[in-house]
Design goal:
It comes from Dinoroseobacter shibae (strain DSM 16493 / NCIMB 14021 / DFL 12). This protein is an alpha/beta fold. The protein has helices spanning 32-40, 52-55, 78-90, 109-118, 131-138, 170-176, 189-198, 228-235, 252-255, 257-260, and strands spanning 17-21, 43-46, 63-66, 95-99, 123-126, 152-156, 179-183, 206-211, 219-224, 241-245. The protein has a five-stranded parallel sheet with strand order 3-2-4-1-5, sandwiched between helices. The protein has a five-stranded mixed sheet with strand order 6-7-10-8-9, with helices on both faces.
Length: 281
Amino acid sequence: MSDSLFSSLPQMSPGWVWLCGAGPGDPGLLTLHAVNALRQADVIVYDALVDDRVLGWANPQAEKVYAGKRGGKPSAKQRDISLRLIALAREGRRVLRLKGGDPFVFGRGGEEAQTLVQHGIPIRIIPGISAGIGGLAYAGVPVTHRDVNQSVTFVTGHDQSGATPSTLDWEGIARGSQVIVIYMGMKHIARIAEALIAGGRALDEPVAVVTSAATDAQQVLETTLGTAAADIARAGLAPPAIICVGRAVLMRQVLDWQSMATGAAPRDLDPLGRGRPAEAG
């Protein structure tokens, strides 16, 4: 990659921590700022969902520190990660904290940034493409479509204890948002679906479950709210997953661009049953 491409981009100074989003999986979804940071960092503290090919673009002399957190598996504690970042910065290292997706979208990046600032460590924030948008786009599901929804709600499927979030008003979300995108929700999908149905959502509401989004291992399950839990179990799907609830899921029938790239035809050119003439200009 040409050095001239990065000549006008920011230089990483010793003692700084850059908190950076690596996107949902595909290395091509990195920003130039992210690649610039990888090329400069002395030490890279990275999460479980960062693709190995992303790390292949790092400064060859950089120390790589794994700090992945995965549900149900041995994981680094958040406090220990934050303290490690502080210690590395105080050693005068150029520190890149590399997180899957976007660091501020259910990624604890805000907590880490706040701790760093409280300890006098200068930071830079580099946004990334969140899996709840980019991962669904790779599956052919647009989170907004003007024939479907004027609202979308992003929620997490578990809280700090690992349980279904008790502070969320699931009934209000069910009534108030046409499309719901759920991060980290596979473990509690039966309970979440039950709460949304109790809030007024239909049993046959379309649902898409996308695992390992934007990677070669991506899988997509199209199901309904009433059968989602059983269908996920039957398919043997495993996290990480993004779950989308709403009629926008129907658009996958015509927008499954990855299948079309292999020669498959769209399943339905008008899945919403309300076609709109193509608009020019």
